[in-house]
Amino acid sequence: MVRRADSGTASRAGAAFRWAGRSGGTEGRPGNRPAWVRGRVLAALAVLTAALLVFHGVVADLAGGPGSLLETFLPWLGLVAVLLLGLALLRRSALALVALLLPVTAWTYLFGGLLLPGDGPGADDLLVVQHNVSDENTDAAATARALTDAEPDLIALEELVPPALAVYEKTLAPDYPYHAVRGTVGLWSKHPMSGTRLLDIRPRGIAEGWSRGLRSVVHTPRGEVAAYVAHLPSVRIGASGLASARRDESAGLLGEAVAAEKVRRVILLGDLNSTVDDHGLAPLTSRMNTARRGFALSFPAAFPVARIDQVMARSATVGHIRTLPATGSDHLPVAARITLD
Predict the structure, then answer these.
(1) Is the pLDDT of residue 283 over 80?
(2) What's residue 64's pLDDT?
(3) Residues 158, 287, 278, CA angle at the centre, nearest 5°?
(4) More confident residue, 309 or 236
(5) Per-position DSSP letters for 11-38, written without gaps between them
(6) Is 330 left (phi over 0), alpha (psi -120 to 50) or beta?
């Protein structure tokens, strides 16, 4: 028995010697690597996250539309950075911590300003509300009252269908004597309106009768403003990204209409089925200002992950944008202050 114990001890000693010979001692073991060597995978993921934030437009140009899907949820890459930070601290990796400066800096540059508080309301600012009320909303009257509680100057609504349309008209009439409806979109105003017309943003392949855009001139105390209300086509999420061709085509038509608008000041309100980071809205975001403060995630109402309800302006500034309390819709209403230049 003594000989067997000695033999076992010698065997273990030999194995330890062979390990040390292969690894160079305890310093070669993964848990004992220097802090500047550990976490190379985490560092690589941090660099990749930063690249997606900065160069998301490159991904957007790939076939199949993966970029549109990425850009819809672009701000959520900040959570990836937070997760990588936790893993880097757990791993005690100085390399990963330094690499994380890249996505943190990129995210702060792109979205940090949205977290800052907005300026106080100006005396001549316009308060506007945008809401897709949903064609399945069972309480149009309550929805209308909820929107008037914010006391906006303008209210833009989408998915207006009978008989709910009549309810919205009746409920909003006392406070908003001026309104216009074209197809399934409408605009209610405290100020006089004129020159209302249908806005043709129907993409090819969609049947006649599809009407989701209007344009009207609102006569505010600060002068004329051309108000546009639009509801762009929906998109579908697939394995390769977003099926967004029709939405993008409709956005292009809307952008052309804005470019041709002769009234200097323009306000666009609508469910654009896209975030302002999505390259599909470039025909609009290249011509108009978007909100400087606030995330206002509006869809889906039960657990909002993206703001696809937008407020944009030309020759005017969109200040802080926020969501309003939930209604009977699958979207949350958004409200924003517009400072006319």
Answers:
(1) yes
(2) 53
(3) 65
(4) 309
(5) HHHHHHHHHHHHHTSGGGSGGGS-TTTS
(6) alpha
114: which DSSP letter?
G
pLDDT computed for residue 73 by the predictor: 87
| Residue 9: exposure state from Cβ atoms within 10 A (0-12, 13-18, ≥19) | exposed
Rounded Cα distance between 235 and 298, Å, is: 16
Can you read off the two tokens belonging to residue 24?
Answer: 């160079």
Dihedral angle, C-alpha 178, 183, 184, 189, nearest 10 °: -10
The amino acid present at 310, given as its one-letter code, is Q
CA-based nearest residue to 62, from 70, 51, 54: 70
DSSP assignment of 133-181: --TT-S-HHHHHHHHHTT--SEEEEES--TTHHHHHHHHHTTT--EEEE
Longest dimension (CA), the chain: 106
End-to-end CA distance of the chain: 96
Tokens at 75, concatenated: 């701000």
Phi, then psi, of 160 in degrees rounded to 5: -85, 120
Top pLDDT among 221 and 28 is at 221
pTM: 0.84
Quote the distance between the C-alpha of residue 251 and its chain's center: 16
